[in-house]
Structures are given as structure tokens and as C-alpha cells.
Amino acid sequence: MRKIPVYTHPAAGWPALISSAHKLMDYQTFLRGSLSVFSSNQPKGGFDCPGCAWPDHKNHKMLDVCENGIKVLASETMSTRADAKFFAKHSVKELQGWTGYELEHSGRLSEPMYYDAAHDHYVAISWEAAYARIAKQLQQLNSPDQALFYTSGRVTNEPAFMYQLFVRCFGTNNLPDCSNMCHEPTSVMLTKQLGVGKATVKLEDFEQAKLIMMFGQNPATNHPRMLEMLAHAHQQGCRILSINPMREQGLSKFRNPQKPTHMVAGQSDDLVDDVIQIQIGGDVALLTGLAKWLTKNGKINTDFIDSHTSGFEGLDHWLRQQSWEDVERGCGIPKDEIINIARLVADSPATICTWGMGITQHVQGDDNVAMITNLLLLMGMIGIDGAGASPVRGHSNVQGDRTMGVHERPSQSLLDSLEKVFERPMPQEDGLDVIAGAKALIAGELKVFMSMGGNYSVAAPDTSAIQQALTKNQLNVFVATKLNETMLYPGVDNLILPCVGRTERLITNKGEQFATIEDSMCKIVATQGRLAPISNTLKSEAQIVADIAIHLFGSDTSIPWKDMGEDFDVTRDYIAKAIAGFEDFNQRIRAADRGFYLYHPARHRQWDTDSGKAQFEVPKYPITYVANQMAERTAKFSEDAKHQNNAQSNDIINQQQAVWQLTSVRSHDQFNTMIFGFQDRYRQTDRRDVLFMHPDEMSRLGWDKGDKVMVSRQDSEGKPRTLGPLVLTEMDIAANAVATYYPECNDLIDLDTHAPDSKIPAYKSLTVVLERVSADELIASA
Questions:
Q1: What is the pLDDT of residues 538-575, one digit of tens each?
Q2: I need a surface site. Which of 312, 414, 467, 618 has the fewest CB within 10 A?
Q3: Using CA atoms, how far apart are residues 568 and 566, in angstroms rounded to an integer?
């Protein structure tokens, strides 16, 4: 067995502080960025960090920010501007060749720009002229459904509410958002099973939990503020398991920067008790094994099941049909180890299941969430202290945007409420999600694309095809703080509208405004920036939406768009009337020290489901789905190799290592599609063109660290897709599994490889073929 290089230091600590300081200097914002750090996540006048959706600690701290958050703040508070002078120096064709890192560091957008096709440059435009172009193109559409209105999760509640209202007043439900690509299975399945598609826990529950099972999650990189709560739970006697194909070193120990004993004396807190290195896509099989043992041995909560659930008989029958051989084959974990985990579940009086996109972003992502919920229901772990479902969202307000109505499949109750409050008809047919929207773009069925934040083409599958499709549009509009790749594929009219960032003060004719967000645990929190805006030209997202609506609708509306854009109290009063749970919004947000929780029926064992009870769900895919896919692809690959007499391919087949399962990961130096740098400290690499593989698997192949490897797969239409060459890098990852960085791998993913109900793309599980290439082959191909 070859030794795996391991990051031996605890997570956070001095390396995190040093890295944070370097990032502030890298963005040339040490003073401005440092000032923002002290206002981040502070009650009464602070702003909510846009870095993630993890809730604020219940006890006030002078500093309540993590390394990841500081990097996001550095990005937003940089003083360098991507203004007219910048765009005059760089043509769009040149910028298309820039990396994500270079675009990220180009500066803050600071004035409205439009694309001058004759000279291939963005040039300055007045706000009024920009609005006129938008209104003209929207008015010329044959149908409102020819426009797509995308939203990023960083948009706060007030502009999100205005945005969805504007789009629906225009006449369409084409409101895809980043939820379609991250936690859509969570929203779909929790709604179906529990009545609300959100977490059933509060932060305080982590202090009372006796078992925490973390599925497909890497908080040390993606939401480091969670580490403190995990460490605290562990100190309270809670057992913590990480179920993940990769052994993430940031989950071993935690050195809290706010504890002198940690920073001076070198102490640290333990985090995870054990790592269950499951096969990629094997979560349903593992959960099936747990549920199978628990039901057979009478370790389930029958009183809760009888009183509060529906569908148990169907699930129980399905569990008895599943063989232990298939369970082991599906997850790669031996039966004895699965039973040991099941005993921990049986003995725990309070269990939290928490998960990230390692659970959701699969073809069987809906099944993954359903089986986690099934496990909690079997044990009666919904609606009691210290237990429940805890999906952890990425963007700081992706959950709030959905609550505000940003959804391509709105509930009838929302549409009815909007019609009643605003006395206008609302479109009734479902709109396009990210996948359907991308397909419509590529097919030429759309004429207008508008993005409220985000980097649509790079976040979505089939990046290159979407970018080329955007060039055929009549109008593309981007409301944003930073330049990104999607903006560089202009249509006939292409506009960039710069907005105020989360860290910046928002002052209108009605005075200084504050906004709100919703965290991962249904808490509504105020957010108010303190820094001066990077430019006097900037407008808030709410003002931009209001101005577009005024130019588009003119006098033909009774909605006070201008007042809503300038006075967020007016907007909140409308939210209070239209959105359930926000009654007396203005009064409650001002009275609370640090926000208020929305009512969650499942926390009180009330079920807003079709049956009126919590619902067990039987998975749609076989528990050996991924194993079957790999076997089928191996057989086809073997047959193809025989026909082609490919010596290298046959050599791989002889070693039974032809086909692999690939997952995408984010590095420690990025946030979603934002690339801050190239250091992935916990995985010990400083480049992004890498392919992670276990060193024992390298040995079986006769490959070495540093070898160049091509990755290929056939998409759902049988067309070949390739990525590489990538540099082979050692990592403690499950057998037959490899990993590479998102979003660079997105062209491997086609728009038809997704979950059936939620339509989430399968970023985390692709069956691929690997081929080592020599230096001579690389030269020849070049």
C-alpha cells in the first residue's frame, strides 16, 4: 500500500489567518476588506456574509467570519475597477481567453456597459439608455416565454421578491435559479415527505445531538463556520460520522482562531470520529442497508411511524427485497461495518443527518434525499430536540430567494396570493428551470436572457454550447458586481448593470436601507453594509428591477415600483401580505436581536403533505445503479477496444480498471464558480488541472503521480466528451473513484444526465474512461 500524503495540521488556525491576510493583499483591499470583516455577521447593523448560508452563532462575537468568508469579502471589497477604461484596453475576444481567476481579479464593475459589436469592446452607457434598450427588446418579443430570468442565491429577499413579481407581471414563470443546480432534490423530496423543503433543525439542535451523520459534505472548505459547532457537539459527547468517498483532511481536527489555547498553546478540537469511504453514488445502498437492519431487528420507532407517517408498508416491503450482496456492491462498504453504523443509529436518542451537494448532484439525487429522510422517519428523529434533517446550502440567500417566490414551478397558493395582493393575473403554467432553459437557449427558442447575479453558463452543464447560444440572443442583461465568463458571449444587445455589494451602504432618496436574508435553518436575518460603494454610479438590485419595470410597464401598472426600490419597508410590507410566515415583517425584523425563525410545521410534527402525514418514499433507481452503469460501460469499452486493437486500452481492461466513477469537487481557494487562487491547502495541490486518485489504484494501473490523463465519456446521446490532459494527483479516495475540479469539468456533463424529478445535473457522479497519454502523444495532438 502506497502512503498517501496527508495534511497534518488542524483545520483553520494560523494557516487560515495567514491565507486570509494574503488574500486581502492579493485583492489589494487589506484596509477596506479588514473593515468589512468586523461588520460581518454582526447583529444590529452588520451585514450577513455572502460566503455561505450557515447560521450565525447564538452568542455574539466580535469576529464571526471564516477563511472562506474573508475570501468572498476580499473579492467584493477590492478597490480595483473593471470600468470603461478597463474595457477599452481589453476586447471581448481577448477576455474570452482569460481564466476564471483572471476575470475574478479584474476588478469591481462600476458603471453600466453595453457591447459595441463593431469594435468588440464593452463601452459605457447611461442607466436611462440601458433601460430603454431592455424595455424595447422585451416589448418586441412574441411571447414573454421567450425570455429567461436567472437568479443567483446572493440576491437578498427584498430585490428577489421584486424580481419575481416583475417577471410574473411581464407574463412568465421562467425563473430558474441556482437551486436548480445545488439543492433541488432537497427542496423536492423534503416538500414531498415532510411538507416543507427546508431544514427541520435549528442551530441549537447541534448542541443536543448524540449522533451527527454528514453525507457528501466538506465544511472545512465550503462552510468553515460549521466546524466550530461540530467541535462543540463532539465535546458534548456527540458521535460524528462523515460518509464521503474522499477523506477530507479538514475534518480531522479544528483549531479555533478565537481560542487563545488553540492559537498560542497549539491545542485543537477533534471533529469526525470516523470516515465511511463510500463508493461514489452509493448513498442509497448504504442507507438501504441501515434501514434493512433496523427494521428487521425491531430497532425502529413504531409509535412515531404509526402516528405520524404514511407509506411504511411499501418501504418495508422494498427493503426486504434488497439483498445484502447488492447493498455491499452498491456502496462498497462491508455488511459488518454497515451493521455497526446501524447500531449507532439505533442507540442514539437524538440524530441529525446533514448533507451537501455530494448527496444531491446525482442522477439518483432525489433517491438520496428520500432515503436520508426515510432513515430519520424510521427512528422518529423529526420534531424532537437535537435531531432532524439539516441540508446545508451554499449561497447565503439561495433558500430565501425561493421563499420570496423565485421558482419556475410556483405553488398555486403563491400565485393566488400575488394575484390577491397586487390585483393582477399571474402566469399559471410552469416555467423553465436551468436545464430546460439551457436547452431552449441552444435550440434558439429564447431571445432574451437576464441574470440577477451568478455565472449561468459556467455553473451549468454544457458550458460551451450555452455560451455559443447566448451570442444568438437579441438581448442579454447581467446585474452583477464582478465580471465573469457568461458576460463575454454577447448577443445583439448585451448590457452589464453594476450593483451595490452586500458589504456596501445602500442609501436612496428615502434614506439608508437594510435588507434581509434567510439562512439554512429558516432564520430571517437583517443585513446592512457599512462600506462606501466602490462607485457613485452603482444602484441596488432593487432599484435596477424597479427602474426596468417602470420603463417596461410605464403608467400601465398600479404597483409602486419606485417606492419599493427606494424604501425596503414598503417592499417588506408587501412581502408580509403575499408570503406566508412574514406577517408584521418590518416590526419583527426590527424587534429581533438577530432575526426570527419562520414557522416550520415539521418541527412541531405537523405535516403539510398530500396525506397529512410524513411520507416514506421508495427509491426509483436500483441500489446498484452506479455499479451497473460501470459494468455496462466496461463491457462496451472492452468490446470497442477489441475491435480497435488498442493495446493501451486492452492493458487497462486486463487490470479491470478501464472504467471509473468521477466526481467534481471545489477547491479550498474558490467559492462556486469564483476562483480566488490555486491553493487547495487540505488536498495539498496548487493547480486546478488535476485528477485525484488513490495511490494504490495508480499502482495497479502502473501509473505515477504527475502522469497526464485524458478523461472521456459518452453522453446520453452517445456523443463523446473529453477533458484533459489532467495531472494525476494522490488523494485518499474510494476505489474506482476519481475527482476533478468544478467548473472546469462541466463540458463533460450533458443536459440530459440529471435526476428525474428535480432535474439536477449529475455533477457528482459520471461514468468515465481514463487514458494515460505520453509526452509524445501530447505533442502530436497539439
A1: 999 999 999 999 999 997 789 999 999 999 999 999 99
A2: 618
A3: 6
